[in-house]
Design goal:
Layout lengths: L1 H42 L7 E8 L8 E11 L2 E12 L2 E14 L2 E8 L8 E8 L4 E9 L6 E10 L20 H4 L10
Antiparallel strand pairs: 1-2, 1-8, 2-3, 3-4, 4-5, 5-6, 6-7, 7-8
């Protein structure tokens, strides 16, 4: 009788320990993966780039009939960006479409994107640095990529705008962060100073 009581107490204690450990793990998981991210998103006061952006791009010296169309479908989580960028390039004799997986960040009024090919797309990795302008309704900058037909790094000047004119940047309580002043604006170099 005493052994069966000890065995039942042991089994009850073991079950309570396992259930308690599971409850602590579940609470920690919910805290880290559900509650904290929701509070951070709620407190975030910056611009929201989520949505579809469309625009055109041109190289340094575009040839007659050469153009590039860009479509950015972005999702933003505070400062982190992810999504898909579709680049359609057309020129005399060449036409290609590139679909790229985008990951990046938004800081101080700039979006930096790292772009990798998706699926059957041409293997052409790219990177983009875009400045938020026009109250968060435009992204202007440059896209650097490995040209799929020529063995060169090519650049496209791009300007994309929100795809739907009624869409707003959703800046909650804050305007878009202005870029910090340039070095020349903050501390002019006196005449006659030699820089090495």
């Amino acid at each position: 009788m005493a052994e069966s009581l000890i065995d039942s107490q042991f089994a009850t204690g073991l079950a309570a320990g396992v259930l308690g450990a599971f409850a602590l793990w579940a609470a920690a998981y919910l805290w880290v993966h559900a509650l904290v991210p929701r509070v951070r998103r709620w407190l975030y006061r910056g611009v929201n780039l989520s949505g579809e952006w469309k625009g055109l791009g041109t190289g340094y010296t575009p040839a007659h009939g050469e153009w590039s169309e860009l479509v950015l479908a972005l999702q933003q989580d505070i400062h982190d960006l992810r999504g898909v960028v579709t680049l359609r390039c057309r020129s005399a004799g060449h036409a290609f479409d590139v679909k790229l997986q985008a990951t990046g960040t938004v800081t101080e009024g700039y979006a930096a994107l790292s772009l990798q090919p998706v699926g059957e797309s041409l293997p052409s990795a790219a990177t983009a640095l875009l400045k938020l302008e026009d109250g968060g309704r435009a992204l202007n900058g440059q896209l650097l990529y490995r040209h799929p037909f020529l063995d060169i790094v090519d650049v496209i000047d791009i300007s994309v705008h929100r795809a739907h004119p009624a869409a707003s940047p959703q800046a909650r309580g804050a305007s878009i962060a202005a870029a910090p002043p340039s070095f020349a604006e903050t501390s002019p170099i006196p005449n006659g100073t030699v820089l090495e």
